[in-house]
Amino acid sequence: MQLQPTASHFIDGEYVEDPSGAPIDIVYPATGEVIGQVFAATPTIIERALDSAKAGQKVWAAMSGRERGRILTRAAAMIMERNHELSVLETYDTGKPYQETSAVDATSGADALEFFGGLAASLTGEHIPLGEDWVYTVREPLGVCVGIGAWNYPTQIACWKGAPALACGNAMVFKPSETTPMCALKVAEILLEAGLPKGVYNVVQGMGEVGAALVNDPRVDKVSLTGSVPTGKKVYAAAASHMKHVTMELGGKSPLIIFDDADVENAVGGAILGNFYSSGQVCSNGTRVFVQKGIKEKFIARLAERLGDAVIGDPLDEATSFGPMVSERQMNIVLGYMAKGKDEGARLVYGGERLERDGFYLAPTVFADVTDDMTIAREEIFGPVMSVLDFDTEEEVIARANATEFGLSAGVFTSDLSRGHRVIGKLEAGSCFINSYNDAPVEAPFGGVKMSGVGRENSKEAINHYSQVKSVYVRMGDVEAPF
Ligand code: NDP
Fold first, then answer.
1. How confident is the model over 283-319, as pLDDT tens digits?
2. 234 within ligand 1 shell (Cβ under 6 A)
3. Cβ(118) to ligand 1 under 6 A?
4. I want to staple 467 with a disulfide (CB 3.0 to 4.6 A). Which of 115, 168, 305, 450 is the partner?
């Protein structure tokens, strides 16, 4: 399989190279080998991308919603047909096991293209009667949108931002994370093949400064970022100075609350999905697992047993269920947190170390007896580290769960459904789960409150974040003016 991208950037319907940009190595996380290289966008490349987006957007917005939708749904079908190839690429980009990438990465990108493709023809305004006069509203595109991606879901993020933006008639310039530059280029290629006019979906590579240059450009009308809170603050501030629209999908330190009456097997399953999928590199993870005292030891024992069933190894082997960290840098950050957990007195139940093999592998790790003030209970780790905290009462756990600046997700496991709804109702989080964890269907809004973000991705909600409403007052009679 050809891994080295045809060229670094995709602009105006074609691959474009400019080797005068800073070189960026593409590293396969499972071995640490360099498998390709791209070049960061130079100012000339950024200029070309924005010019082509500006021109492409006019052509695209002039098409009917139905025509736009047909192209997006065609792209969705093409992604599904090529799922194997795209999943292998995603595995090389991120190190995530093929078992995962073939199930949730390109497929969830296709879901978004299909869903928003289906909505495109229905984006209408309304008629507001005012006696003789009336107002009609028109849902219009914003213009040129910039998407900036994190490295954990490169195909999904490229589609989750692109699909609603394009359905509404916008153009996009997408900058993937420098750590995972390959997948978004394939998304751009497929969209073009599906019939997207050139210039409507462009990809440029680069680090933070390329993202910053895009955010600050006056031709850009909206910025959608998936990333950390510190980056989110910078990007939000830069966008605000131009009064641009934003969507911010940022980090979390989400609570997963397990009551004594929960089904232990399901609760352990939820905690595994909420901490170890993608080696823990998921923003919505429920990394503060509050377990009521009566069930705690049973929960921990069963968790440790099931972690022993994880198949850690070559991510391209379909049997592998747990892969490496995305990069050496991220691995070292997480190792630092594992050390802090031990130093601050948490009880190490499982893992807690780097695995002896090539690549950036860490053991799935569980700390018990974690207290609210410990660093591992307060900061987002973005790795396979679960903190188990004990609690006695419902009121206590709600207060402790909410005592964080983040508010992305929250989950509750209980067999008492009224308690499930009551507790979820009091948790400060955008994306919540009852007796489940980390499901993200495109039909449901996804996003955070507090420092975890602004706006929502997916669902009909996303349309409001990629379009604006024009209202038009129509007077049927004469104009009465005071003089
Ligand atoms: P970062 O915040 O470091 O980077 C996110 C993206 O922003 C990257 O493409 C980065 O470029 C770019 N960037 C960095 N600085 C700037 C700037 N000043 N202006 C514009 N763009 C900039 O996050 P990571 O990539 O390290 O991803 C991990 C983080 O993302 C975690 O904290 C996680 O919580 C969060 N995340 C949130 C999700 C959500 O939906 N809420 C989903 C997934 C991740 P580069 O890195 O190439 O320099």
1. 999 999 999 999 999 999 999 999 999 999 999 999 9
2. yes
3. no
4. 168
